[in-house]
Write a structure and sequence with these properties.
The chain is α+β, with helices and mostly antiparallel strands. It has ten helices and ten strands. Helices cover 48% and strands 20% of the residues. The strands form two sheets. A seven-stranded mixed sheet has the order 4-10-9-8-5-6-7, sandwiched between helices. A three-stranded antiparallel sheet has the order 1-3-2. A hairpin with a 2-residue loop joins strand 2 and strand 3. Helix 3 crosses helix 4.
Amino acid sequence: METYKNELVKVGFNQNQALVYELLIKNGKMRASRLSGIIGKTLSRPMVYALLDELVDAGLVEKEEIDGVARFSPTHPSSLQAFIERERTKVESRANIIATLIPKMVSEYNLTSAKPGVRFFEGNLGMRAVLEDSLTAKTEIYSYADLESIQKYIPEINADYVKERERLDIKKKGLIPDSQFNRTTLLGYAEKVTDAKLINYGVAPFQTVMQIYDNKISYLTLGTNQRIGVIIEDPHIYAMHKYLFEYLWDITPKVEPTPQEGSVPATQETVA
């Protein structure tokens, strides 16, 4: 006779729940005492009652009392689909809780272990995850950004990020290589949440974004074939980069961006 126990365990039942449920499917409505008798000494009668109540709560078994005697019968096997959907929702809810909890726990772990926390990300989903992490920033974000590479490789991801940063009113200072592209891109950018300075050092696009915030340093490496993100959480590394950024910011003069002849200024959605 075919058995379903192993498959039921794989989808979320424990061993005892699977045993009781399978017996009900194969035997139909019965009293808990009879079910306990079939199972034998493997499970006590109180345990059988407890398992039946769990299956009733899961919507897989129905309980009916006649003359004070409870009888249990399985619901239609299609109820398993609804059971799985509920389990999937629970898992998604747990995943969301964990995603929120991990950053908080990482901070305390780093303090007690004295080890920098390092997380790696890949692909477009990784780019989005690294940017979204800074949306939790409690401090002003400092950033070195290659706007040309951002616009070339992740324009949609960055546009979504900027809109959310504006909505949350998260401030940022940015040091940007001085190029005609960057001067044009910065034109018309709303200064509500971002203040940028141009560094005139003859630097070619370096295809990288670095952000400094909340004891963290994040990096995005942008390219056609390789997109990698890294978040490092360490108060000492953060303090060093924060100091270096503030020093460069203070000695860098403010230069107003200028349009390229015939160009149309970019909107704020194109700026990191």
